[in-house]
Specification:
5-stranded parallel beta sheet, binds cytidine-5'-diphosphate, kinase, Cytidylate kinase, transferase
């Protein structure tokens, strides 16, 4: 079985690259960010103040997440309901980044992620995959790109979906989330010592995937 860990900040290209790698290697793709987003969405829907750790901890036993690998990537179910699209908003991203600072939330999700790794060959992306979830991964990649480039990518995505967003606001949101993700005390976003760093700023998806496949060979 093989396991590939892809980490990096928001918009670095993790899910695009990880999905394509999984397709070429014939294994499944697991998006762990979607799990933190689903916990954030649950709090927003249930009017749980996600800034209150004890309230979020108390909600955890009521949150059941199921991941389904599909050809296009992954579907995520929150208590049986498909929330794969509902989790893709800036509001949910901000809630996800906050609940991801709580130890109990991380413990619960990390144990589910490790279980998936025991069952199948996979490409998993997130923030702590190479450092915490699969320290023994076959290959670890740390993707980067400038915050302007990452915000521009998000901007284009939202625009394609017909959503109105302001680029300056997106740059600010991404920088705030980067700060929160890399400065939290538990499992902060950081490159594992043995991870290969790949700057995606001026590269196409195909170039990056080909490069990673070479590293694997
Ligand atoms: O897609 P994007 O890179 O914007 O974010 P995401 O991967 O969907 O993750 C949403 C949030 O979940 C991140 O800002 C992190 O705070 C958190 N996260 C985490 O802490 N650990 C992971 N393994 C994955 C995501
Ligand atoms: O998962 P993460 O938040 O790291 O990023 P993503 O959702 O895979 O990528 C964000 C956007 O950047 C997507 O629309 C990708 O198509 C685009 N992208 C790109 O333009 N060039 C790359 N080398 C990688 C991703």
């Amino acid at each position: 079985m093989i396991s590939i860990a892809i980490d990096g900040p928001a918009g670095a290209g993790k899910s695009t690259i990880a999905k394509e790698l999984a397709k070429r290697l014939g294994c499944i793709y697991v998006d762990t960010g979607a799990m933190y987003r689903a916990v954030g969405l649950y709090c927003l829907r249930q009017n749980i103040d996600y800034n209150e750790e004890t309230e979020v901890n108390a909600a955890l036993p009521h949150i059941k997440l199921d991941i389904e690998a599909i050809k296009e990537g992954q579907k995520i179910y929150l208590n049986g309901q498909d929330v794969s699209t509902a989790i893709r908003t800036s509001e949910v991203a901000a809630a996800a980044s906050k609940v991801a600072t709580y130890g109990e939330v991380r413990k619960t999700l990390v144990s589910q992620q490790r279980q998936m790794k025991e069952e199948k060959s996979l490409v998993m992306d997130g923030r702590d995959i190479g450092t915490v979830v699969m320290p023994d991964a076959t290959l670890k990649i740390f993707l980067t790109a400038s915050s302007e480039e990452r915000a521009k990518r998000r901007y284009l995505e939202y625009k394609q979906k017909g959503m109105v967003v302001d680029l300056q606001t997106l740059i600010q949101e991404i920088e705030e989330r980067d700060y929160q993700d890399s400065h939290r005390s538990i499992s902060p976003l950081k490159k594992a010592e043995d991870a290969k760093e790949v700057d995606t700023t001026f590269k196409t998806v195909d170039e990056i995937v080909t490069h990673i496949l070479h590293l694997l060979a």
